[in-house]
Design brief:
This protein has one helix at about 25-30; strands spanning about 1-5, 10-15, 20-25, 35-40, 45-50, 60, 70-75, 80-85, 90-100, 110-115, 120, 120-124. The protein is mainly beta and about 120 residues long. Strands 4, 5, 6, 9, 10 and 11 form a 6-stranded antiparallel β-sheet that branches. Strands 1-3-8-7 form a 4-stranded antiparallel β-sheet. A two-stranded parallel ribbon has the order 2-12. The radius of gyration is 13 Å and the shape is globular. About 35% of the residues are buried.
């Protein structure tokens, strides 16, 4: 089971920061790449950021480069997404997912364990 949570409640304004967390069992996470995806209203789910099993490689979607940082703590079976300088276009439901492989990847089909999603709304 994969569980996504938003750390910090309340409304989020443009320019604010927010941190998302993703938890799963050791068996699900420890040897697998993990990624964050998002789906805005009326749009398809898109890749946001991914990290390899040991954190050695990361990958970001162009619009979040320099603003978002993905990290993981395998000792705690946690993956995080630090989101800074939020924009209204970051508004979406964010999902974390564990990959079939250890490497980082952006293709949705490579991910077979999905969290329930957590909503992020950024007001301008």
């Amino acid at each position: 089971e994969v569980s996504c949570r938003r750390l910090g409640g309340g409304s989020v304004q443009a320019g604010d920061s927010l941190r998302l967390s993703c938890a799963a069992s050791r068996r699900t996470f420890s040897n697998n790449g993990v990624a964050w995806f998002r789906q805005a209203p009326g749009k398809e789910r898109e890749f946001v950021a991914g990290i390899s099993w040991n954190g050695g490689s990361t990958l970001y979607e162009d619009s979040v480069k320099g603003r978002f940082t993905i990290s993981r703590d395998n000792g705690k079976n946690m993956v995080y997404l630090q989101m800074n300088s939020l924009k209204s276009e970051d508004t979406a439901v964010y999902y974390c997912a564990a990959a079939r492989t250890a490497a980082v990847a952006s293709q949705t089909v490579l991910y077979n364990y999905w969290g329930q999603g957590t909503e992020v709304t950024v007001s301008s």
